[in-house]
Specification:
By secondary structure, the chain is an all-beta fold. It has no helices and 14 strands. The radius of gyration is 31 Å and the shape is rod-shaped. 11% of the residues are buried.
Length: 208
């Protein structure tokens, strides 16, 4: 008995059901194999594409570009010609530490945009500063997408102000005759938003 090896080129599968390859053998004497042999393979030559990466705290609250006080949910929108297996999130912390988190997706949606969410556990270390997210998607054939990047800032510290009288009164003086007293507020926080500063006089807002 002589064993022979044959190779064929299989085109890319058009659907998730794959490509059925049927073999029928006939020898030189005309004897035909009594039962066909068939194998099914799913040939996927396309790579996933990440269309967008964003972060949110609540589902209706997109916080891209804003400073936040806790870990957000990372959302990835992506497409593939056949299916998505998983998305890897490479997270760089403010101190330079890098960790990789994987979210299994196993989504079969040929050429349709799908959404994958990932949120760090609540007990995950939370540091103030800038976080960098690199998202990479993989399909079931192991092909990877080009990475997509996103940055967000965490700020959990309360703002601290120092108050001093600049003009119209002396430090500690309670009663003054001047109609204008200038008070200097000095913020010891780089993230203070002047537009959100509220000044009150006996409960009445005099500046906002």
């Amino acid at each position: 008995v002589t064993e022979q090896t044959f190779k064929i080129s299989v085109p890319e599968s058009l659907s998730l059901s794959g490509t059925n390859i049927r073999f029928v053998a006939t020898d030189q004497a005309g004897n035909k194999q009594k039962k066909d042999k068939m194998v099914t393979v799913c040939v996927d030559k396309g790579s996933p594409v990440i269309n967008a990466v964003s972060v949110y705290i609540n589902e209706d609250e997109d916080v891209n570009g804003q400073k936040i006080t806790k870990h957000p949910t990372i959302n990835v929108k992506l497409t593939d010609n056949l299916s998505i297996d998983r998305v890897d999130f490479v997270i760089t912390y403010p101190n330079g530490t890098t960790v990789t988190k994987s979210k299994q997706a196993s989504i079969n949606a040929p050429n349709q945009e799908v959404s994958v969410d990932y949120r760090l556990p609540n007990d995950e270390n939370l540091e103030d500063g800038e976080y960098t997210i690199k998202a990479i998607a993989y399909d079931k054939s192991g092909r990877a997408s080009y990475p997509k990047y996103l940055e967000y800032d965490v700020d959990t510290k309360d703002p601290i102000f120092k108050v001093s009288v600049e003009a119209g009164a002396k430090p500690g003086q309670k009663y003054v005759s001047s109609s204008v007293v200038r008070v200097l507020l000095k913020a010891e926080d780089d993230n203070v938003d002047p537009a959100k500063l509220v000044v009150t006089d006996n409960g009445e807002v005099i500046h906002d």
